[in-house]
Amino acid sequence: MHDFLFYLKLGWEHIISLDALDHQLFVLALIAVYTFKEWKKILILVTAFTIGHSVTLALSILDVVRLPSDWVEFLIPLTIVLTAAGNILMKNKKQSQDKTNYYLALFFGLIHGLGFANTARVMIAKSQSIAVPLLGFNIGLEAGQIVIVSAILILLFILLNLFKVNKKDWILFVSSGVFALALKMTLERIPF
Question: Whole-angstrom Cα distance, residue 77 to residue 112?
Fold first, then answer.
């Protein structure tokens, strides 16, 4: 139980800490096009991301997949750039964007999972089962994402209903800001 709680806390911190800006920006870009009424779609998106993250993390811990860390650090903000750009370019195509977002969340989750892989590989001993650490980490990650999503949705609810902000303006403003920040991160991390 101690191991489970340790990894649960680690998963929570992986998304909630100030060092997790890339994860937070990705979640923001991923859900920027949705409202509180669409919470089921959002939950599926966040869970798809966690599944992708989990698969790559497990494969990396088992030493099936390895990618140089400088490439991973470059690809993570690139996924954010692409997600934010998708929001901007597909702002009038909601239904096709929903389907695309599910696949992006899963695929980009695979890339984001590599970001924690080197640390996880060192922390989880070869003789130790990876099931408990992965379960704890992923539950912590999912819980942290749900807190972040909830905060974003509450802010959006207030903006749309109290301040009468236009939803398309919200999407454009948030996606453009996330795009700019993530593009800066991407350019700073070019591995070649």
Answer: 9
Q: What is the pTM of this model?
A: 0.93
pLDDT, tens digit (0-9, with 9 covering 90-100), for 12-39: 999 999 999 999 999 999 999 999 899 9
Which stretches does DSSP call E strand in the chain? Answer: none
Using a 10 angstrom Cβ sphere, with 0-12 exposed, 13-18 middle and 19 or more buried, the burial of residue 129 is exposed
Mapped to the 3 state alphabet, what secondary structure does 105-131 carry?
Answer: HHHHHHHHHHHHHHHHHHHCCCCCCCH
- Give the HSE-up count for residue 40: Cα atoms under 13 Å, Cβ half-sphere: 0
Structure tokens at 82: 């692409």
**Nearest one of 85, 109, 112 to 172, comparing CA atoms:** 85
